[in-house]
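Recall the central idea of this unit: under ordinary conditions, the amino acid sequence of a chain determines the structure it adopts. In this exercise we apply that idea directly, starting from the sequence alone.
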Amino acid sequence: MKKKEVTQLSYEIIGLAIRVHKELGPGLLESVYEKCLKYELELNGYSVKKQVNVPVKYRDMEMDVDLRLDLLVNDTIVVELKAVETVLPVHEAQLLTYMKLMKKPQGLLINFFTDNISKAMKPFVNECFRELDD
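Accordingly, the structure predicted from this sequence is:
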């Protein structure tokens, strides 16, 4: 995938998250938004995996830990959903770590506990993104 394609996919995911938010509004559990966004993404032809196990390796040891990312879209973008009053730096670090461990170029941190989801959404890229062709 090229940077432009990843960026376009990210834009489309955000558009569908906005649709879900407009329909449901703030105040529901994260799991509700997750199911609805997955539904919208699949309805629009995207491949979506939910609650994907994130493998953790330390040196030559593969650890048996229960880390799960919320959504993985087209095996490219990690989507981490929140329904919290305030997104904390630990939430951002969590997403960046998932992206690194999964070797995915982009992540979206989307907080549904807001009046304006565009302002409550944060995109992140990493080295995998920088290595993609323009």
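The beta strands are 48-53, 56-58, 61-63, 68-73, 77-82, 106-111, 121-125.
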